[in-house]
Amino acid sequence: MKKVTIRQIILVGLMSALVLIFSGFRIKIPLPVDHAAIQFGNIMCVLSGFLLGPLGGLAAAIGSFLYDLFDPTYASQAWITFLTKFFIGFLAGLISHWKGRSARLRSWNLVGAVAGSLVYVLLYLGKSLIMGQYVFSLAAGSPMMLYIIPKAATSCVNAVIAIVVAVPLWELIYIPLNKTGFLKPA
Fold this sequence. Notes:
two-stranded antiparallel ribbon, 5% strand, 186 residues
């Protein structure tokens, strides 16, 4: 097992801050018993994985957790967000860095971004179904569908935004980061 370096701890902190900040850029969509949102934090969750490998999951989890913790609307669910958002950065990082790839290959970066985002969407929808049934007491059928469909739609839009923005953005910043030696292990 590799030791975590001071540099990695600093980068986890930096990426956590970026996840927190970008999560604040959102468009809330009111629902009868709750709301959904189009937001940009998932872009930074994916980039955390590209930059840090699987450790990027920790940055995604911490930044998203802090965003939820500071917003009374989401504070009670912050621990769930920590667990679910972790998988975006973790899977993006695991796949893009698998076997020494170091997030250099677009195809594997795309696979990692899709895998992390897809797993998050499934976990989020599972959480939403449980919340709909046990917190909001929505009956199966129409009431539940009026709650779940907008959540699924916005979650899928967030996933697509994260993938479509993070992969080319990483390609733009990878070259200068690599040229300066920033991406070389300390």
